[in-house]
Structure formats: structure tokens, C-alpha cells
Amino acid sequence: MATTPQGSTSTPAPMLDIRDLRVSFPTDDGVVHAVNGMDLTLARGETVGIVGESGSGKTVTSQALMGLFKDTSATVTGEIRLDGEDLVPLTEAQMRAYRGKKIAMIFQDPLSAMHPFYPVGAQIAEAYRVHNKVSKKAAAAVAVDMLGRVGIPDPARRYSSYPHEFSGGMRQRAMIAMALVCEPELLIADEPTTALDVTVQAQILDLLGELQSETGASVIMVTHDLGVVAEVCHQVVVMYGGECVEQATVADIFRDPRHPYTQGLLASMPSLAGKSERLAPIPGFPPSLLALPDGCLFADRCPQTHLVPDQACTTTRPTLTGGAGSASHPSRCHLTLTEPVREVAR
Amino acid sequence: MTPLLQVTDLTKHFPVRGGAPGSVAPIFAGPRRLARTLAAPGKDPSSSATRDSARHAESTHQTPRSDPQTSARHPLGSSLLRSQRGLIKAVDGVSFSVDAGQTLGLVGESGCGKSTTGRLLMRLLDPTSGSIRLDGQEIAELRRSGLQEYRRRVQMVFQNPSSSLNPRQSVGSAIAAPLLAQGIEPPGGVKAKVRDLMDRVGLRPDHYNRFPHEFSGGQKQRVGIARALALDPHLIICDEPVSALDVSVQAQVINLLQDIQRDTGVAYLFIAHDLSVVKHFADRIAVMYLGRIMEHGPTHEVFGAPQHPYTRALLSAVPQAAPDADRSGRIRLTGDLPSPADPPSGCVFRTRCPAYAQLGAEHQELCRTKVPHRAVACHHTELVGERLRTAVAATD
User: Fold this and answer.
1) How far apart are CA A21 and CA A5, in angstroms?
2) Please, are residues A217 and A9 in contact by the beta-carbon 8 Å criterion?
3) Which domains does chain B have, with CATH numbers?
4) Chain A contact for B258, CB < 8 A?
5) Range list of H helices, chain B
6) For residue A264, is it within any domain?
7) Is A319 within 8 Å of chain B by CB?
8) Within 10 A of B374 (CB to CB), how many other CB atoms are there?
9) Does residue A204 sit within a domain?
10) Of A183, A205, A233, the domain-final residue
């Protein structure tokens, strides 16, 4: 069972520090601004959840962390500091020393993330040999051991199985084995359980929790499911339109959501525990990333814009404020600047 | 009062045919087999086919056998290049009913047969056995005009709105299609009816001539719902209608479906894997596992006091969006779903049942040998509660 992610202790120097990360892609229709100012800090051994809907930039953020946009037409600016070193200016060749070794990633769909023509074990062994000068035989032994650790029965025999011979849950276990074989300090899990059934999802989340407490790795859990966040994360970052709109501890985000988008997200979720009231959906649709408005990206869907004076919501982009020093956690909303107004909004 | 829809002992078996790697031998044995096939059409128990099934059996550890009665009911001949290797019991003796204006939620994991059940009800598939009655009328007997009338009364909303709409058809004409197919001329004309439907699902009139690619996922699903509503059906089968949508849009569509039910009195069969959505939406719930219904009852009973160990495990596997929720006493299932081509004997859930190991030998014997034919498909519901507590305590 995953360790209950409550009451995080005092924060030491962050292992990962992302400052004003921006990623944009040139397309035939114009420049797509996928990530527009992402900030995130993560302490060693902690789990942070990145939550958001499709197109909110959560996957692009994690791909930028892996350095997957090196040598592409994408523009990445800002800072990604891993143990103090900035990864953004690194070249593809330099990034290779990090990828797999210090940062590893688990993808949503292991069937397309694995090579269909190579045995699963061989792919894990290969990942190990990229960063460790060992014989093929020794790497194979490590891979078998790793398959055993992620709970695959009869690992020596399954070593030579191909990805299509595994079930969905087993494939995701193998994917986790591949990501963890070099004992990375940072593990990025991009929707690791979205393609799985709920009973298997529970197994995989448990497994990730166990392995994390064994290895002490930090985890970034990218998900659209606030339930998963509540189960496994310490911190949450809520993304909308490529921006981080709110960052808080898990307890705070559910108890005291600050940003109207977060509030809307929570209200639109049917709950298994509570009684069935009518859902309160967020009206409208997310903004187009091709032409972002000047003001708050959430303004045209926000029910609280009338509380902000001078129509600031449609003219000025709010900054991520609050947090250190102030009573509340950071949120990107004009309203949180003026506490009394927020009370009216409730 | 007779229910709107009454499903009794519905069963659908799919033959598993050859074509797996390593089965080229029959091709080379072609001339011989061809002669035999021609001599005795419909049955071809040739030696190579038997060999193939034996090899297949090896790779799946157990023989994919079917009881003689089932085989007798389905004499599935093998052709020249393909041979039958077993049966997938996608739906195996499922019974439930839906009352007018009510919603039945059909939940279960992938491969449990819930979508097949929906397709059987639409008569997109013909059942192997069992009965489906709409207002007392057996639908297997329907032909042509009867079937057309049935399809007017039962409509479907599909999971993926992108693939269930024709990319070259404007949404207006997609919504009009059912009316034209049925030859119905609504008062005021087809166009007015379509505009009315678009208005009802929250689409603007100027969307009429647009094409599916111009819409977001949520809007496309609204088109799918408008199309299903066009014929004023009595029952709509919703096969995972919101699982492809984002949370905030999902809530919009759920509210829309509820408003439509309130206004028109349509009944829903709501097929979904998301238990929170089903709990929110359904009046009654049927939980499926490996082609069978494990538990069936009013939503508040099934969720409030689940009896079947599978229902309990399923409920406790759902991640709770509440950090303070009590997470002790969770039931974790181990392993994967068994293959529906070779389900366990007796109770199909016994191989993953967390209480099974805690049961005494004679109780286990019963689980292994007898299919539990009960409202809650478990032989030992009384025992299971306390055994589960022991099992959970042992793992915690």
C-alpha cells in the first residue's frame, strides 16, 4: 500500500526546480504555446502530481524534463534545475547522460513505448547497459532481478517474452522495471494507469509506492485523475492552458482549492463517497493554444470574474502568487490577492 | 408491471479460430483437407486441426474445452485454413431488466462482456442463446419491419464520438440520418426537427452544416446523443459515453443525459467502467465479471453494502479523491483477469477471490465445482464478509 501522502515534513533544498518553463511548437497554423510559464519544485523522495485536462501541457512539461525536444523545432526556455544543474541548455549528447540514469519516464501506453520485435527482458537489459559497463550476461541478470522486483511471476522465463505476450498490467510492470533499472533519482510517470482497469491500476499504484520507498526516488505523477493524486502524491500542481494555476499540498488542494479552475474541477467530479448531487460542470472549452488571450486564460469560463475590479481578468494575466510567507498556497488568480473578495465568492 | 426490457439468460459465445503463428501446416496439407472438407461440409475434424488445438492448449496451459451441450448447440465448422479452437464465453447467462424511465448501470473491467451485452441488445450481434424482450416482445424473432421498429425504439450512443460519426457527413445530416432511414417525416419537416434536437443537446443552429472535425470531443458526443434522440427512443444504450472526455466536459454530458431522461422519460442502459460515474447516474447496477453478473441491485444497496467479494474489491480499488479518506481495510486483487476462452470452473471469480484461500476445503470445493446461481453470484456471501476481514488484516 502506498504511504499516505500527508503532512510532508520541512522542505530541504529541492532536488528539482523548474522556473518559468515555456515550450512552443511552430506549426502550419501558427505557433502552439503548449507550456506557458510552468513552475515546480520537488524535494527528494517526494511525489508531485501534475493534474490537468487534455491539452493543458502536462505531458509536454514531462517530455521537456526528459529533454525530448532537443534537436527538434520546439522552443524550450526557462530553467529546469536538477540538483542545481540546468538541463535546458544541454545538447542532445549531454542529455543522454541524464536520460535513463538520473531521470526516467514511464509512458501511458507501454505497448507503443516498447519495441515489439525485441524480448521485454532484452530491452530492460539494454537500458541498463547504456549507463553501466557490464557484460550482456550481467545485464540480463539485472533485468531478470528487476522483473522479479516489479512482481512479474517467473521472471527468468518472462525475460524472453515479447511485449504482446504480456497483459496490460504486466506490460506496465515491465515498463516500470525498465525505468527503474538504473535507479534514477527522478521518475516521471505520464498517466501510468490510465489505460488500465481499476483493480490493476490499484496494483500498479501500490507497486510504484513500494518501489519509491525502497529507492528513495522522487516521482512526478502526470494524471488527469484527482483520485490518483489523492492516493499517491504529496504535492499537486494544477495545469490549465499550459500554465501552473495552483500548487499546494494534497491536503490543501482538496480542503481549500484557491483557483476557480481547481474549484470547478473538484465540483465536476462525481464522487464514490458523497451523495449524488447534480454535477457542476465548467462551462465552455479550454483556450486555443494558438492564440492565447492577454488576460487570465481561464477568464471566459470563470464564474467569478465579476468579483475582480476593472475587468482585470480579461486584460492582465495574473501571476502565481501566495505561498512562501503568506497564509495561502500559490495560485494564479487575481481574486486570491484580495482575501475578503474571495470569501464573497464562496 | 412488466419491465421495459427483460433480458434472461443471455449468452454469446464467439468461436476462437486458428491463424496463430505456427499453423501453416494446414495450408500445405491443403489438398487433402480440401477433399475432406468438400466430402463433409460443415465438419472437418482433420488431424492437423486437432494437432493445432493441442499445441494451442499447450501454450495456454489448459485445454480450451467447452461442454458438449454448448458445442452441440453451435456446430461451428472449420474451413480450409481456419479451425475452431475453443469458445470465448463473452456473455454467459446474463439476466437483468430495465424499467421505463430508469437507468441500469452495467459495470465491469475490460473484457467482462459489458459491451458485447450492449451490442446484443442492439441486435448488432445475434445471441447464442437466451432471450431479450422489449415490452414483452422477443427481439430474436424480429425480422425486417419488426426489427426496424425495434431500432426506432432502442438507440445507441457510442464510446468514441470521433469514430462513430462519418467525417464526410455534416452533423446536421448525421442527426437527420435516423429519420430518413426510418422514413419518418416529423411535423414541420426534418430540418426543423434536427434544429430542435441540436438545441436540446446544446449545439448552436449554425453548427448544422459543420463537419465532425470542427468540434471538440464533448461537442461530438452531443451530436451522437442528438442522433440517438432523433427517433424518440424508449431505451438508449450508452456504451461508455463519457470515458473519452475530460472531467469538466464529462460532467456537462452527464448532466445533459440526466436532463434528457427527466424531460423525455427515456430509459438508459449505461455501460461504463468508471464506478463513480455509474454511481452518480444509475438507479440500478449490475456488476459483470468474465461474462457473468456478479451482483445486481439498486445502486445504493450495491455501493452501500456490497455483498459479492468482487464488488467489494472493485469499489475499494477506486482511487478516492479525498486525501483524508479511510484507506485501511482495502481489498487488493492480485493477478489479471483469466482468459474468457478458458474461464475457471464453478465460480469464475474464485481464482482472484481474496476470501477463497480463507475458506474451508468443502466451501472451496463448492466454489470450484458449482456455478453460483444466486442474486449475488457467490456461494458464501455470509462467510465472505468475515473471511475478507481476516484476509485484509493479514496483508496490512
Assistant:
1) 27
2) no
3) 100-127+142-285 (3.40.50.300), 309-320+329-395 (no CATH)
4) yes
5) 25-28, 30-39, 47-59, 68-73, 114-121, 144-153, 171-182, 190-200, 217-229, 247-264, 275-281, 299-304, 309-317, 361-369, 381-395
6) no
7) no
8) 12
9) no
10) A183
Domain count, chain A: 2
- Written as one letter, the residue type at B218 is G
Report ipTM for this prediction. Answer: 0.81
Residues of chain B neighbouring A6 (CB-CB closer than 8 A): 323-324
Predicted pLDDT of residue A3? 45
Task: Name which of B218, B251, B333 is nearest A199 (Cβ-Cβ).
Answer: B333
Cβ atoms of B179 and B190 closer than 8 Å = yes
Residue that wins the pLDDT comparison between B19 and A150: A150
Give the 3-state secondary structure of residue B248: helix
pLDDT band, residue A75 (cuts 50/70/90):
very high
Q: Which of A183, A214, A247 is the last residue of a domain?
A: A183
A96 Cβ contact partners less than 8 Å away, ≥ 6 residues apart: none
A6 against B307, higher pLDDT: B307
Mean pLDDT estimate for chain A: 87
In this model, does residue A5 exceed pLDDT 50? no
Phi, psi of A189 (to 5 degrees): -110, 105
Question: Which tens digits make up the pLDDT trace of A39-69?
Answer: 898 999 999 999 998 889 999 999 999 999 9
User: For strand B129-134 and strand B235-239, is the pairing parallel, antiparallel, or unpaired?
Assistant: unpaired
pLDDT attached to residue A341: 44
Put simply, whether A252 touches B (Cβ < 8 Å) is no
pLDDT score, position B64: 39
Specify if A342 maps to a domain: yes
- Of B114, B117, B108, B115, the residue nearest B313 (C-alpha): B108
Q: Which chain B residues in 99-118 lie under 8 Å from chain A, judged by CB atoms?
A: 109-110
Output the 3-class SS for chain A.
CCCCCCCCCCCCCCCEEEEEEEEEEEECCEEEEEEEEEEEEECCCCEEEEECCCCCCHHHHHHHHCCCCCCCCCEEEEEEEECCEECCCCCHHHHCCCECCCEEEECCCHHHHCCCCCCHHHHHHHHHHHHCCCCHHHHHHHHHHHHHHCCCCCHHHHCCCCHHHCCHHHHHHHHHHHHHCCCCCEEEEECCCCCCCHHHHHHHHHHHHHHHHHHCCEEEEEECCHHHHHHHCCEEEEEECCEEEEEEEHHHHHHCCCCHHHHHHHHCCCCCCCCCCCCCCCCCCCCCCCCCCCCCCCHHHCCCHHHCHHHHHHHCCCCCECCCCCCCCCECCCHHHCHHHHHHHC
Check if the beta carbon of residue B281 is closer than 8 Å to that of residue B103. Answer: yes
Q: What is the pLDDT of residues B173-212, one digit of tens each?
A: 999 999 999 998 888 899 999 999 999 999 998 999 999 9
A26 within domain boundaries:
no
What was the pLDDT predicted at B21? 47
User: Which one-letter amino acid corresponds to residue A341?
Assistant: V
Distance CA A176, CA A108 (A): 11
pLDDT confidence of residue A34: 93
Nearest CB to A281; choose among B255, B303, B319: B255
B320/A285 touch (CB, cutoff 8 Å), yes or no? no
Are A272 and B327 within 8 A, CB to CB?
no
Report the alpha-carbon distance of residue A247 to residue A270 in Å, rounded: 23
Q: Which residues of chain B have pLDDT under 70?
A: 17-85, 389-396
Of B246, B279, B325, the CB nearest to A270: B279
Closest alpha carbon within chain B to A249: B323
Which residue segment(s) compose the domain that A154 sits in? Answer: 111-183
A29 touches chain B (CB under 8 A): no
How many C-beta neighbours within 10 Å does residue B276 have? Answer: 21
